[in-house]
Amino acid sequence: YDETVPYTILSHQWAEQEEKILTSCEQVEKDEFKWLWVDTCCIDKRSSTELSEAINSMYWWYENSGACYAYLHNVPSSFPRLNDKIWYHNSKGWPEWFLCGWTLQEMIAPRNVQFFNRCWESIGNKKMLTHTLLCITGVPPCILVDGLSSNHPCVAQIISWAADRMMTRVEDRAYSLLGLLDINMPMLYGEGRKAFHHLQLEIVCASNDQNIFAWGCGAGSDGRSGSVLANDPRCFWGCDNM
């Protein structure tokens, strides 16, 4: 990827692919960009090497985008300001986009995140929605506005933001946190929850942050398992105020 070439990047859930991509290209033209990066088109998941490289590079790609289009496919009109368990009954009262593990880094990394509803109407941007996003995600406004590098939250706090998020593959509970924690490691699908153990070991080797051992105290945790390593990001629930 050429850092000198401005591009937009799409953050979405995997549904209605062709129509969504075509419409996002139209938005790119309106915003006078020339390039759009979409994971479903730009990553060959048949290649384990390419997939591993992509996952390890994903945060950087989002961080360096000129704009990120966050497509909220189940939002009918304006951005929801209040929890609505009737309309969003399958996603804890908020749009489904906020339940996905991958979209956490896709929200934090880019400087410019534009939200769109299911009709591709603009419904706000990250900077104007910081306090609502705090209510939904637990991520402080200072992180949303200035990014991770300017604020240096502790490891436990970062992982806590992913505690309630969902993944199709259990390994992605760990892999989706790599960029947020500034860690690179190989992918090994099939290792299950060991992936999160491996992530924690990489963090211990790369950082002096002792808060990585502060898990197990929150209401969402499954308690101590006899190991210093947590089994899942849910174990860090309640660590968001560290």
UniProtKB/TrEMBL annotation:
Protein name per UniProt: Heterokaryon incompatibility domain-containing protein
Heterokaryon incompatibility domain segment(s): 15-75
A Pfam short name: HET
Annotated PANTHER family: HET DOMAIN-CONTAINING PROTEIN (PTHR10622)
